[in-house]
Amino acid sequence: MGDKKLKVAELFAGVGGFRLGLEKNDFSIVWSNQWEPSTKLQHASKVYEARFGKAQHTNEDINEVVTRDVEEIPYHDVLVGGFPCQDYSVATTLHNSKGLKGKKGVLWWSIHKILESKKAPPKYLFLENVDRLLKSPAKQRGRDFAVMLQSLNELGYAVEWRVINAAEYGMPQRRRRVFFIGYHKSTPVYKRLFKSSKTDWLTETGTIANAFPVTKTTAVDTITLNGDLVEITNNFNKDGKLSPFQNTGLLIKSQVYTLKTTPLYDGKRVVLADILQNEEVNPEFYIDDKDQARWKYLKGAKKEKRTTKEGFEYNYSEGGMIYPDALDNASRTIITGEGGKSPSRFKHVVATKKGLRRLTPIELERLNMFPDNHTKLEGITDTKRAFFMGNALVVGVIEKIGAELYKQIHV
To answer: Which of 51, 103, 237, 359 is most buried, by CB atoms within 10 Å?
Structure first.
């Protein structure tokens, strides 16, 4: 099957979650890019290079690369990446549509430039984002996603999407993300999608439906994307309180088909207890007696008066959290601030025979289905390793979608 390997360019590579999932199938990473804009030391890129080698890996702002020459990125069949959720609105309103360009520094437009400018653009896209993309910004729900869909539509792609919570398919973390697959109009998959029943594609025959089965819970809504990117930026869902985009949908030739689906899964479920290290855990992960009360307070329910810096008094309330974390369920979402000793409402705490403790870097890696010690490297702190996992994706989701995308392409 070696000759059938699909070539992949991996953007926003982090510590290589997409790569780990795709290399379990017949995908070959021919180029990768990781750049952390706010830090001098490029820790994630260092880990990536340590695991996968320096060849074909770049540690440079992707904006700089695409501005210089998109052909520096070698030919690839599939472009993948978890791109940052930012404000995608179009900055200019030139009458000449060639002048439409997104806001400077918004990384969606780097992807756009690759697709628009490469002599042989990728035939397939496989992208990931936080699910709030479907409903941002608050004053114009769904506008950013509509800009993204219309820009891909103008470039000749059909796109299917689904919001997936990894735990609802037996994986160890309740991490909800939106995944997109794009098909260029020159591909047989695009032509199949165009001819198919859109409901069947989204619930039975499509790439994501095969990877993650669902039942249909609402009728399909259709939306027509009208106008260029400036018009969509200015007018999309102007008066709507809710985003028109449901958790499942597709766009093809300006038509959006979207519906709400529910996961269909009755297989094995991995829970927090399953991923805990049984061997000795470093004492620094155990919670000090002197900190117990602070942890309890932060995790607990609150109704109290608080005062702003300006002296304004207000009522503050929040619900309690399960404390310590339930071992018989998938874990809560890992966040970037998961590491470090300081008490926190959001860090995970587990009860063990030796007492309450935080999760170790290996346990956090397991929750994202990374190999043990994937992020272990000289000069990389445990706090930084936790930060990587707060930014990472669940490798099992990529693996399953990748397997179905490969089949879909090789029908």
So the answer is: 359
Strands 313-318, 57-58: pairing kind: unpaired
Fold of 2-265+394-409: Rossmann fold (3.40.50)
The stretch 203-220 carries a mean pLDDT of: 96
Q: List residues with catalytic annotation.
A: 85
Alpha-carbon Rg of the chain, whole angstroms? 22
Q: What are the residue boundaries of the structural domains of the chain, listed by start?
A: 2-265+394-409, 272-380
| Residue 2's pLDDT band (cuts 50, 70, 90) | very low
Q: How confident is the model at residue 1 (pLDDT cuts 50, 70, 90)?
A: very low
User: Is 90 exceeded by the pLDDT of residue 127?
Assistant: yes
Nearest to 192 by CA among 206, 182, 202, 179: 206
Q: Which two tokens stand for residue 384?
A: 């930084």
**Cα separation values, 404 from 3, 5, 333, 410, 411, Å:** 18, 14, 26, 10, 10
Per-residue pLDDT band for 92 (boundaries 50, 70, 90) equals low
pLDDT at 296 over 70: yes
In SS3 terms, the chain reads as: CHHHCEEEEEECCCCCHHHHHHCCCCEEEEEEECCCCCCCCCHHHHHHHHHHCCCCEECCCHHHHHHHCHHHCCCCCEEEEECCCCCCCECCCCCCHHHCCECCCCCHHHHHHHHHHCCCCCCEEEEEEEHHHHHCCCCCCCHHHHHHHHHHHHCCEEEEEEEEEHHHHCCCECCEEEEEEEEECCCHHHHHHHHCCHHHHHHHHCHHHHHCCEEECCCCEEEECCCCHHHHHHHCCCCCCCCCCCCEEEEECCEEEEECEEECCCCCCCCHHHHCCCCCCCHHHECCHHHHHHHHHHHCCEEEEEECCCCCEEEEEECCCCCCCCCCCCECCCCHHHCCCCCCCCCCEEEECCEEEECCHHHHHHHCCCCCCCCCCCCCCHHHHHHHHHHCCCHHHHHHHHHHHHHHHCC
pLDDT, tens only, 374-390: 999 999 999 999 999 99
At what angle are helices 382-391 and 43-52 packed, to 10 degrees? 80
Separation between Cα atoms, residue 253 and residue 62, nearest integer Å:
29
Q: How far apart are CA 211 and CA 399, in angstroms?
A: 9
